[in-house]
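Protein modeling request. Please complete all fields; requests missing the sequence field cannot be processed.
Requester role: graduate student
Desired output: 3D structure, token encoding
Chains: 1
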Amino acid sequence: QKKELEEQERIERKLLRKKRSEEIYTKKTGIVEIAAQLTVKEFSEKIGVPVSEVLASLMKNGIMATLVQSVDFDTASIIAEELEVTVKQEEENLSSEDLLKGDLSALLVDDEENLKERPPVVAIVGHVDHGKTSLLDAIRKTKVTDGESGGITQHIGAYSITKNGKDVTFLDTPGHEAFTSMRARGAKTADIVVLVVAADDGVKPQTIEAISHAKSAGATVIVAANKIDKESANLDKLRGELSEHHIQVEDWGGTVPMVPLSAMTGQGVDELLEMIFLQAEMMELKANPKRLAVGTVIEAHRDPSLGPVATVLVNTGTMKLRDQFILGTTWGRVRSLTDEDGNKLKTVPPSGAVRISGIDDLPNPGDIFQVLKDKKEMKVKQAEIEELKLKEKNKSMGVTDILQSIKAGNMKYLKLVVKADTTGSLEAIQQALDEIGNDEVKAKIIHGVVGGVNESDIIMASAGQ
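Delivered output (465 residues):
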């Protein structure tokens, strides 16, 4: 009788184990998100299929695996298809190293099927007193005349307008240093750069600097020939001066559009907006609005009542209230979202610009904003960033570091800023540098101009590292 009881208990335990196994392994329906790399056991639990079935399917495909062996997404997707489960790859977070470097490229990769059209992001740059601010004001007026709420109630460094049912976001980046600082962190901020040049004054030192910034950023350039209402305006002279700096306008057989306008009278402003929309259409700008938000800091300051606040341009994804995020070397949870008109928002789509609060410390222009899934991810990122901050403290790239980087194959181009005393000297130096190079590394001039070395040149040189 004792043996019968023991046998009964053994059968019951076996049935209980089987029941638990069935509860754990209930085949998932719909789309299951899995990591780029995961173990066989993790994969089995994710898709709700017993390990034995997963191992059998792997074996059928010529893969001998164990429970703790890792499989990549491509392999997992083939096995999942055989087991009649639909899987997709989880969005990957940026490594803390890339996050601090400001390298957005890895984060912006997405499946074509998830991408939707997004508005263009436009930066307006130019020489001081050439009418950049007046042009921004003239564009703001078109927002009012289109029947939208008029008047910018607060300066957030970016704003959006809608023209003929199309949206565009403008970045107000006063001073070239701010623009270069973003470049120094490798942040992809603007799709299109509008280069404002006064038709009565022509190309000036800061115009040349702005051209270098735009080219270095890889942005599409549109020339806005301002002040055409003045008698001294000379468009042919301007075209010639621009061509000397490798800006060949369409009127002269080049590829760069030039729009003559007057910010003072409003003449040509609508044509400029139409040209921006045309260029954007040709560029086929897209982003995934359904993923966790990724963005770039435009500017930041301390608010007396809100603490650290930052204007963030959303590069992809949709930003929401209470999102947990990493922002450069700091972090936080979105407490408020405010647009340029002072409106409180709940969500911000791709290419939208918004002021956020709820930041632990003040970020820098160009820092990357990345929303994280949960507190666990947040803690891991915080620890990694704190460790990297200690390593990076007071670290700079000297000649020895550059040579080691070339030797390791990490540097293919040595980017240079060239300054000379005369145009003749500058041309000779540039030609000589163009001829230097081998299979390991080549010299690439990112900015060349006559004059003494200034702080802006140093910032631009740091952008080239």
